[in-house]
Amino acid sequence: MDIQLTTGVDLHIIATKQFKVTRILVNFATEQRQISPSARNLVANLLVTSSAKYRTQTVLARHLNDLYGASLSGYVSRVGLAHTVRLKLALINDQAAKAPLFERGSALLKELLFNPLVENGAFDAETYRLQQANTIGNLQSWDDDKRFYALKRLQQTYFTEVAELRRPASGTVAEVQNITSQQTYQAYQEMLAHDKIDIVVVGDVDEAAVCQAMRALDFSPRQSPLHQSLLYHQAARQTPAFATEVQPLAQAKLDLAYHLPAYYRQDNYLTAIVLNGLLGGTPYSLLFTNVREKASLAYYATSSLRAFSGEILVETGINPADQTQARALIEQQVADLAAGKFNDAQFQRVKEGLVNQYVTGLDNPNVLAQARLITALMGLEPSQKVAEGLRAVTKEEVANLAAQMTLEAVFLLDGKGGETDGEA
């Protein structure tokens, strides 16, 4: 059920008796180029920390406990060319609790969104200092995860034409350190007044009651700041970009970014999912079988599909001395896919694994909410017959699509030598 609450604010209800917990996801979206991701990350953290009524994390936690142990989180994410701020509240449903928890939870969301803890046109100074420090700590801990760090640097190497996509959706330590409470409060006001808003509710709910509760949030009308399409197309390079960085590591990270002319919900989208599963996205993949197991050239070797930017990203952890051999073998797996050099049994195992993963996701309310949110942002109806579509993908379709893959960027996080940037 989809309802427009007002211009630019849409409600999506997935009413199901599957779950005893109801999820409410409130998503704010705008163009990445128009905002500071660091400021919006701070906003997300501040909104789920306190409010004018619940002035500390301790007081707010007590209230959540009064709501039968409700859980609350706030975070940022990117969907193609859109930057999103999300608040998520999970409540035991009214039938199981025998109490009006949805109504009380909706009132809490309204308090958090419209009455943050502010003074003199800025977030409360002490609360802001604490959340600023927490956010910096989180960002630093992510960079301490060298696999995550290498993937971030690969994306910075890959994206050349849109500077905003080179910046993490969560912002950077330097930006968070320099943003003031006043600037963050301004980012909050702009988000509340101008962002496209989608609310997704999943659970055993009364649709009329949900509509009434969500209308009570009383968002103002706004024109959507999003492009008609959130997909990003980047022109191909003549030669792949190459970057390397040296850190004191025993295990190097070798990551490759391939352009793949396949995008979310386009005709070859399901073929791209199967292709990625065959390359490195499942335990039956070529990367796992040939690079990790047979050649023993990688501690891990996986791939992931980025369907909003037309990419397949390959991640490996290797011995520094094996980088040349490992890269050659990775590229050989892509060539083998394009040549159709994968057997029928492997192909069927990959497809059935992907179907099982999809079917399992239907039993996860967070997966359902995320899927509906993305289709809403893209202006699409929910997917239909996905399992059948995955099973119908042919070897020829996979090979033809793999033949169109082009290597665009390589990043090596090395444990020896000097630091350089250039062409591969």
From TrEMBL:
Pfam families named among the record's database cross-references: Peptidase_M16_C (PF05193)
Q: Domain Peptidase M16 C-terminal: where?
A: 178-354
Coiled-coil stretches noted in the UniProt entry, renumbered to this chain? none
SUPFAM superfamilies in alphabetical order: LuxS/MPP-like metallohydrolase (SSF63411)
Q: What is this protein called?
A: Peptidase M16 C-terminal domain-containing protein
Q: Which species is listed as the source?
A: Limosilactobacillus fermentum (strain NBRC 3956 / LMG 18251)
